[in-house]
Design brief:
Layout: H1 2-18, E1 23-27, E2 32-39, E3 44-48, E4 52-57, E5 62-63, E6 66-67, E7 72-81, E8 85-86, H2 91-100, E9 108-122, E10 125-136, E11 139-151, E12 157-166, E13 176-177, E14 182-197
Length: 198
């Protein structure tokens, strides 16, 4: 009985050490994101001041300074505090945007991606067809967007791309001003460049 118990422990250790370990990269300095759109008066752009989160890849995704095609991107979690979305036009614009995003009840915008693969690879650049869930103003939609990736010379990863959506798909009401004389367009574009490092 003791031999069987010891054998089970040994097999468990072998199995555990054989499990693939994910490579975890955290969002780092140099990341940037903007939210832009139009209105009946002028185009506008807001800057995201705080981006939090991480990217986890399969242990074979990056080896000897190279990216491996077809390897897994196990998990991506990105969180944006709504209060960190700021406009150069000042507090009035910020308040209208935060209200449209329902900040009081939904203080964060989140993106979660699971089980995607690295696509085509050319040198240190690669592509990802990112499929995940985007939650804005408390509503979650499944999204798909092409993302360009790069493995930098210092071992960091860069992911860049854009996502265009209509505010109404997230049950948002476009902000207005001057008693409705100035109205924000429904379409919004998110542009991002995420830098992540271990």
């Amino acid at each position: 009985m003791l031999r069987i118990f010891v054998l089970c422990i040994c097999l468990g250790l072998v199995y555990t050490t054989g499990i693939s370990q994910a490579l975890r990269y955290n969002v780092a300095e140099g990341s940037s994101m903007t939210v832009s759109g139009t209105s009946t008066l002028h185009d506008w752009t807001c800057e995201v001041k705080t981006i939090e989160g991480y990217v986890e890849l399969g242990e074979k995704a990056i080896s000897e300074g190279k990216v491996a095609k077809g390897e897994m991107i196990d998990n991506v979690t990105i969180t944006i505090p709504v209060k960190s979305i700021e406009s150069p036009r000042g507090a009035t614009m910020d308040k209208k945007m935060h209200n449209a995003l329902k900040m009081e009840t939904n203080p964060e915008v989140t993106f979660e991606l699971k089980n995607n693969k690295i696509g085509s690879v050319s040198g240190n650049t690669f592509s990802v067809n990112a499929n995940g869930n985007l939650t804005v103003a408390g509503k979650t939609n499944q999204v798909e967007l092409p993302v360009a990736g790069e493995l930098t010379s210092d071992g960091k990863l860069k992911f860049s791309g854009e996502y265009k959506f209509n505010m109404t798909t997230y049950d948002m009401k476009p902000p207005s001003a001057m008693y409705g004389q100035i109205v924000t367009g429904e379409d919004v574009v998110i542009n991002f460049e995420l830098v992540v490092s271990q």
